[in-house]
Design goal:
Layout (H helix, E strand, L loop, with lengths): L18 H10 L2 H8 L7 H10 L8 H13 L17 E2 L15 E2 L6 H18 L16 H22 L11 H7 L16 H29 L18 H12 L8 H9 L14 H13 L5
Antiparallel strand pairs: 1-2
């Protein structure tokens, strides 16, 4: 299995093939995160407010790559530019931060030095500053503001299937009447995602009725477990933790008026409106087949998208 994070900080092009992309996908799947973006940060839960302050409004960007170029380093990279390097006393040397520059220079150490300065002092002060940069700099997710938690292979698979489960269920409710997925329940959706023993064993015509019922019950249970896992992943990314399925303490987040507006927004279809799955994949994976436009009122297009997303698990 690949390490949970890359050796060097990924570029915007590389990010979709890392678990950072799934972090963003689960965060964009959070109703409360969407609402705090709509409310411009007004929320009674300081944990969610902090996430909003650091991640900003993911929904205002055209693509995940645009967000990554704008905020990715500040959220997930070693906060080198936020450190005060121990420049020699009296040197006057300053380590420039990204906001000091017209264009951030990834992988570069940018210094501002007093002018004029004697050449021997330039050499001495620069060497000492450089040593500090080597000591404190570089990509180190262990010092990043938000860090991917350790996980095993089974958890990695669940991160994918859990997202598939909630995506498939949402699309099933939005499918046109008469489309097959519109009539699907947990068993049919779980079977489509190949949850349970059918991953290894093909259907057999001579399976007893009792065994068939047991299998259906198992697949329904696995599908529900994946939905619960997705809900927990979402509740944890709302407080800046991923991937985790630990229970998160619930605290009031909205005033009465905010909650009324949120409920009405859901009724009006403002949250995850028709076609949202295609928009999500286009946002996250613009250069893959997942970004191909489909009619999400039709079953085959939706199922192909969700199956394609499952295949991406091999590249993380």
């Amino acid at each position: 299995m690949k390490p949970p994070f890359p050796i060097s900080f990924p570029s915007a092009r590389e990010m979709p093939s890392t678990l950072y992309s799934l972090w963003l996908m689960y965060l964009r799947s959070s109703l409360d995160y969407w609402w705090i973006c709509c409310e411009k940060g007004k929320c009674d839960d300081p944990r969610l407010v902090k996430v909003w302050n650091d991640f900003g409004n993911l929904f205002q960007y055209k693509s995940a790559e645009d967000w990554w170029n704008d905020r990715g380093a500040g959220v997930f990279d070693n906060p080198q530019t936020e450190m005060d390097f121990l420049a020699p006393v009296g040197s006057g040397i300053q380590v420039l931060r990204d906001e000091d520059l017209t264009k951030p220079q990834r992988g570069m150490l940018c210094l501002a030095m007093p002018f004029p300065m004697e050449l021997d002092l330039v050499s001495t002060y620069f060497l000492e500053t450089w040593k500090n940069a080597i000591l404190l700099g570089g990509f180190s997710p262990k010092r990043a503001k938000y860090q991917i938690k350790k996980f095993d292979g089974k958890s990695k698979k669940t991160i994918i299937t859990a997202y598939q489960a909630i995506a498939l269920e949402r699309c099933a409710t939005q499918a046109a009447i008469g489309e097959k997925i519109n009539r699907w329940g947990c068993y049919e959706m779980g079977s489509h995602l190949k949850l349970g023993l059918q991953r290894e064993k093909a259907e057999k015509s001579d399976v007893s009725i009792k065994a068939s019922v047991k299998k259906q019950k198992s697949i329904r249970s696995l599908f529900c477990q994946n939905k619960k896992s997705a809900a927990k992943y979402i509740s944890n990314v709302e407080i800046g933790i991923f991937p985790s399925t630990k229970e998160v303490e619930k605290v009031p987040r909205w005033t009465i008026s905010q909650q009324k507006r949120l409920d009405q927004a859901k009724v009006d279809g403002a949250w995850q409106s028709n076609g949202w799955l295609g928009k999500e994949f286009d946002f996250m994976f613009p250069d893959t087949s997942l970004a191909v436009s489909i009619n999400e009122f039709e079953s085959d297009g939706v199922l192909s998208k969700i199956a394609g997303f499952g295949g991406l698990g091999n590249i993380f």
